[in-house]
Write a structure and sequence with these properties.
22% strand; DNA replication; 14 helices; 3 domains; alpha+beta; transferase; 370 residues; Alpha-Beta Plaits; single chain
Length: 370
């Protein structure tokens, strides 16, 4: 069975194009590592970026992760798990500066770089631009330069497709390198828990567990019709990835789907004037990101999380792109006003811009005024 799958994969790859060589680079505990690098007193200690009485952990050092602390965990829970945990305020300008350094390194090896966030990206190195001889050698050289130029470590996965390269980068973290060749792909996926698969979230993982699907091998035992019956359109994706098949290309300059900002409050808010002031602040943060991203958008979306953690969103779309911060903030305030008076205290406010296009695209795409 494995031989047949590998032959099928090889045939698919050789039909129309050369075998892809893809690297997924993932910085190790990025935000926390930057903080430990810049403040030697934090090195070797459990550190969490984020915090505040009602906040969450944005990132945790490996020393903190030993206590079970993870991103998005409420700060009070993290502190309970590790009373000695040190919280530091995030410095996104510093993280962005380091991210730009790293992307400049990537650009020396390939033009095909698809950033996923500040701390991870896919690279297609099928073309050996620097004559290093193999994708493994490219990954090793990139990791060396990141260490020398930023004093940080990165883990990398090297494979023939994006799905397996991403799995491989996580396989020997931190500061690890894993290479999965085409003939190894299907069995590598079969050996891993489905909960680690990109595209299988916690809810889906629990549903799979209830069906006896714990590993890639378990998933591979299900036919395509069975998976589609249980998981709808996602069934075909699961059917492919458990066999090590992923035809997605690395797409340079992956477009933004949305740009937003949000704020969690130390206490639940319900007074209209206070909520309006806080939303104005959030709008300023979000618009700064819109300008850095150099995008325009037609839809403003308000996100509200109440004290009981229930969540609602409200949106307003415009025929033309939202031109500036005052119009963006005014749209958000209008959406907030439609919810007042609030039935219960508000824990979080967020504001975002959606239906985006590059600011320098043709004007008629968003009917921008000349």
């Amino acid at each position: 069975m494995a031989l047949a799958l590998n032959q099928k994969l090889a045939a698919m790859q050789s039909d129309e194009r050369p075998l892809r060589k893809i690297i997924h680079v993932d910085m190790d505990a990025f935000y926390a590592s930057v903080e430990q690098r810049d403040n030697p007193a934090l090195r070797g200690l459990p550190v969490a970026v984020g915090g505040g009485h009602r906040g969450v952990v944005a990132a945790a050092s490996y020393e903190a992760r030993k206590f079970g602390i993870r991103s998005a965990m409420p700060s009070v829970t993290a502190k309970r798990k590790c009373p000695d945990l040190i919280f530091v305020k995030p410095r996104f300008d510093a993280y962005r500066e380091v991210s730009n350094q790293i992307r400049a390194i990537f650009a020396d090896y390939t033009e095909l770089v698809e950033p996923l966030s500040l701390d991870e990206a896919y690279l297609d190195v099928t073309e050996d631009r620097r004559g290093l001889g193999s994708a493994r050698a490219v990954a090793e050289d990139i990791r060396r330069r990141i260490r020398e130029e930023t004093a940080l470590t990165a883990s990398a996965g090297v494979s023939y497709c994006k799905f397996i390269a991403k799995l491989a980068s996580d396989y020997r973290k931190p500061d690890g390198l894993t290479v999965i060749r085409p003939e190894q792909g299907a069995e590598f996926v079969a050996s891993l828990p489905v909960a680690r698969f990109h595209g299988v979230g916690p809810v889906t993982a629990k549903k799979m567990e209830a069906l006896g699907i714990l590993t890639g091998a378990d998933l591979r035992a299900w036919s395509l019709p069975e998976l589609e019956a249980r998981f709808g359109s996602s069934g075909s994706w699961y059917h492919r990835i458990c066999r090590g098949i992923d035809d997605r290309e690395v797409k340079a300059d992956r477009p933004y789907k949305s740009v937003s900002a949000e704020r969690t409050f130390d206490e639940d808010l319900s007074e209209p004037q206070r909520l309006s002031v806080e939303l104005e602040r959030v709008a300023g943060y979000a618009w700064a990101r819109v300008e850095r991203a150099e995008v325009v958008g037609r839809t403003v979306t308000l996100k509200v999380k109440y004290g009981d953690f229930s969540l609602i969103t409200r949106s307003k779309s415009f025929p033309d792109g939202v031109p500036d911060l005052p119009k963006f903030a005014a749209a958000g305030q209008s959406l907030l006003q439609s919810l007042l008076p609030v039935p219960k205290g508000i824990r979080l406010l967020g504001l975002g811009l959606h239906n985006l296009a590059d600011r320098f695209d043709e004007p008629q795409q968003l009917r921008l005024a000349i």
